[in-house]
Amino acid sequence: MAISTSTTVSLPIPSSRREMGWGERVQRALTHDRTLGYLFLFPAILVIVGLVAYPFASAIVMTFQAKTAGAPGRYIGLENYRELFSSEQFLRTVMNTVVYTAVGVGVKFLLGLSMALVLNQERFCNNLFRSFLLVPWAIPTVMSALNWRWIFDDASGLINNVLVRLNLISETISWLSDPNLAMLSVIVVVVWQGTPFFTMSFLAGLQAIPKELYEAAEIDGASVLQQFTNITLPRLHPIFVTATMLSAILTSSAIQFVLILTNGGPADKTMIFSVLSYHLALGGAQRLGMGAAVSLIFFPVLVVFIVFLTRRMLREKGE
Amino acid sequence: MARKMTTQRRALKGLGNGVLVVMILWTAIPFYWMIVTSLKYDKEIYGYEATLIPQRPTMANYATVFRETPYLLYLRNSVAVAVGSTILSMIIAVLGAYAIARLNFPGRALLARSLVFTYLVPTSLLFIPMFALMSMLRLTDSLHGLIIAYLGFDVPFCTWLLMGYFKSVPVELEEAARVDGCNRVGALLRVVLPMSLPALVVVTFFSFTHAWNEFLYAYVFTSTTSARTVTTGLVNFMSQDVFFWGPLMASTVMSALPPVLMFLVFQRWVVKGLTLGGVKG
Amino acid sequence: MLTRRAILKHGTTATVLTTAPWWLVRKAHAARSAKLVVWNPAALAPQVDKIMQEQCYAYAKQAGIKENEIDYQIIGGPQLLPKVVAALEAGNPPDITRFIGGYAQLYREQGHLLDVTDIVNKMQKVPGGLFPVSLPGVMHQGKAWAVPQSVSPWTMVTRMDLLEQAKVEHPKTWDEFIEVCKKLQKPPKLTGFGLCLGLQNDTDNNVMNIIWGYGGKLVEADNKTVALNSKGTIAAVQMIADMYSKHKIIPKGAIAWDNTGNNKAYQSRQVVYVLNPSSIYAHLADSDKELYNVTGLMPIPAGPAGAIEELSTAEWLLFRHNPYPEVAKGLAEYWMAPENLRVMIEEGDGRWGPPYKGMYDSAFWKRPVFRHWRPMLERGRQFPSPGAMSPAAGEVLATFTIGRMMHRVLVENWNAEKAVAEAHKKVAEIYARHQKG
Questions:
Q1: Pairwise CA distance, residues A32 & B172, whole Å
Q2: In this predicted model, what pLDDT tens digit does every residue of B104-143 receive, in sequence order?
Q3: How many domains, chain A?
């Protein structure tokens, strides 16, 4: 690790220090990596401590309390957790979150990879296509969720409308309230919105692969498929890992899609942990401690991802 | 051999074109429905009379948005919050990322790591204590409050992204500049930043769209009209009126425009920025 | 090229730039804290929102409060609760807001509310006094902790034109009702009964309403003994399930509806009946006169145990954090003064029923559409009846316990017995938790 090499700037000799004025001394101090490093990082540290660490710590404290809004909490130990683990709704939420995240991220990954491969081909107006296909990612999540809710609408929605017109169905399909379809419908929206993130990352990865590698492989007579498995895939591997993990974390903790599309229903079929937490804390029961506990239980799962991810990243960055 | 190669290539190109068409449709159809709904009268929006192509296109829904909500105010607020938080997080992130990437001091690795952790703490866990904190500082119901709240997300992410990019700038260039008499700040401003332009674009883009799109904080932290942003102002169409889809889609179209335009302009740099920052590391 | 001085300059500038906004912001806000903060949930009828806001400003003018000292917000229905919870936790709730029954007792129990006994006493002195049903939601040990705002029955909002066309009478019993729906509906364009079955308050109220007709109830009069699990409840749940799956008179999508789902279905002429307070009716007055004129507010069909409507009450809640309690109390009094309330309700096309008995003598309430209103008020009950509105009942309602019970049957094909038994257990847990304190 580079840290052990210590500072490269030589220390001023003691005798000269006495003669330095205050301003000069500060200036000199600023040339030290150590002082400058902390000075530069101070605002960032302030942000992290104030806006993340402190609220995070208070949330953890809250999970051990029976707490309603605006009243001091009463310490109840692990009671919130015990209640959660014995609740069928919570266990179902765990399953749903895993399915929702795994399927959502998996499909986004595959679609994103194919899109990136296609967009990496040479083509007329390619830049225009690239820009257009990435647009769903740029529009506010709330708005795409609302738009899709309208597309799925029973009577007036686009899908049922078209299907009825084509005489493919005689009875409208309740995309968001049919217990077998609700989760699928929500995932469709997640995929629509989130695929561009993968496309963008993978496209970036593809463009970083030197063309010479393919040229050399071609001379060696490697087929397109061989080139793909021997050059493209291994070269993209690091970005596969980072993109997948980032997306998994953000997908699982995002709240808007489910909140707006199904609100967790029907019968908790689409309930995921972020929405359950929101319901418990800000919904009718106003049990802030329970709400925080739900989110916190999922944190270790995320941490495993994160540790894996950071180790990977720091290694890549030559630490 | 070569012939086989070209047929393969041609087949791939054909397949690619096919996939491209499907993907364009998949991306475009929801947009189509959004725009078309915003251009229809209620009669064509609801029930089984709903039309796929508006028979009598109208701008009435747009007029409703401007008449019934202070939409321009929401827009101004969104711009203020997005620009404010982007500039602030950019300054903080550039300094922080440079320190972690280039300076040697104890605790550097720990800080780098904690940045990533920070980014990943779920918002659903934070927002209640955050709201209490904001109230304590008297920052609720204000744009300043939102700007500051968004830093909690933007700073870790931007620092992390820039950190990777700064490391890809050859140390030799910076050292050369320093030999020429530049100090650290000079080197950062004159060598590292200009070479990291694509990454700065990515970071700008990310924090801008995040602030523009954010919903939960904006929704819980503000209630006065004067501090509402477009995403939260729009939600009011959902419950004040029962027939809301027309104006709702009109305001959705309008609110989606700024980030989309920004995206269209910056797309090339975003991909480039990610290329060097994310992949090479 | 930069000198060392420049480093210093840049370093300080950067630090100042990044930390200065904190102080600037605090300064800007010091001036703000003294406003009268009103969070009024949207009434679902724009004309009513407008009248209430005008009355608030009229009150302010009379009380010598400047317009810029009022922070009046119309909050979307679903947004009110999360915002109030967050605001309470942060210690800056609004000065005054309006909630439906149940919440007043919850916040009273948590100690957030102002004592408004004096206002309620004055209201009792209005000729005729208050309906008794408006009191249990606000009274505790002889003191009042919220101001009764309205009492409204849940009625069968009915397409009278369709009934007339088919020459059918309004059904007296649920069995007749099912037959009428089957006769009138033309699926998929027109379905019989827009019963809300999503995870929303409307569902819990709608289902409980039907449960009473079959002799079921939530809790005994002692407010402790949970009584949900009974033959009556099971029969009612089964009847609703049959309406949904066997007779198909409820739209399939109803299990995903939010509170506006039934309104939307009715207003887009996709259902014959919905079970709802008069908000739909008042909304139509503003948005769709054609439908307004053919809409009836009819009594609920009877089950074996009779026909009992549910009564929804709403209250003004005044939070204690308020620096000027007198100002907020004045506003509540102003809004509830009979002459002002009459404007709000009659010009608002009957969005709510007034809590004053004496206000039903006007020409407005003599209109044919309201002919069933008084009898419904007389025999109506509240959600936890025979128990009273309590924090526990409020939580049952707000966590959609009854709606979840219906989803067990409708979505997961549980039998009614099992679903009711499970819901009974959940309700009992909630009541037990609140008794513990």
A1: 19
A2: 888 888 888 787 777 777 777 787 788 778 877 888 778 8
A3: 2
For B50, the token pair is: 């709903």
A72 lies in some domain: no
Looking at the structure, tell me whether residues C282 and C410 fall in a common domain.
Answer: yes
Q: Are A183 and B254 in contact (CB under 8 A)?
A: no
Separation between Cα atoms, residue C42 and residue C49, nearest integer Å = 6
Judge: C25–B181 Cβ closer than 8 Å, yes or no.
Answer: no
Give B57-111 pLDDT, tens digit per residue: 888 889 888 887 788 888 899 999 999 999 999 999 999 999 888 888 888 888 8
Judge if A50 and A144 occupy the same domain: no
Range of the domain at A210: 79-316
* Interface-testing mutation among C96, C260, C266, C284, with chain B (most B C-beta atoms within 10 A): C260
| CATH number of the domain residue C108 falls in | 3.40.190.10
Distance CA C171, CA C175 (A): 8
* Number of domains making up chain C: 2
Q: Which of B42, B104, B113, B231 to mutate to test the interface with A (most CBs of A within 10 A)?
A: B104
In C, minimum Cα distance to B69 occurs at C74
Q: For residue B56, count other CB atoms closer than 10 A to its CB.
A: 10
Q: State whether A103 and A214 are in the same domain.
A: yes
> What pTM was estimated for this model as a whole?
0.82
Is A232 a domain residue? Answer: yes
My answer on whether C336 and C197 are in the same domain is: no
Nearest to C92 by CA among B133, B81, A56, A283: B133
CB-based contact B183 C7, cutoff 8 Å: yes
Cross-strand bridge partners of residue C318: C96
Cα distance between residue C116 and residue A6, in whole Å: 69
Q: Is residue C117 part of a domain?
A: yes
Could you list the residue range(s) of the whole structural domain that residue C331 is in? 36-152+312-379
Same domain, C265 and C163: yes
- Is the CB of B163 less than 8 angstroms away from the CB of A317? yes
Q: Does B176 touch chain C (CB under 8 A)?
A: no
Residue C136 is assigned to a structural domain of this protein: yes
CATH number, position A240: 1.10.3720.10
Instruction: Residue A141: list chain B partners with CB under 8 A.
Output: 213, 215
Task: State the virtual CA torsion across B38, B39, B43, B48 in degrees, nearest 10.
Answer: -70
* Cβ atoms within 10 Å of C432's Cβ, excluding its own: 12
Q: Note whether C232 and C332 are same-domain residues.
A: no
ipTM of the complex model: 0.84
Please state the separation of Cα C355 from the chain's center in Å.
15
Give residues 177 to 216 of B whose Cβ lies within 8 Å of A: 183-184, 209, 212-213, 215-216
B82 touches B212 (CB < 8 A): yes
pLDDT tens-place string over residues B16-58: 899 999 999 999 999 998 899 889 887 777 766 677 888 888 8
> Residue B209: CB partners within 8 Å, gap ≥ 6?
A138, B259, B262, B263
Candidate from B144, B183, B224 with C-beta closest to C25: B144
Whether residues C164 and C271 share a domain: the answer is yes
Angle (CA) C203 C206 C211, round 5°: 120
Q: Which amino acid is at B194?
A: P
DSSP 8-state assignment for residue B70 = -
CA C425 – CA B93 distance, rounded (Å) = 53
Residues C128 and C178 in one domain: no
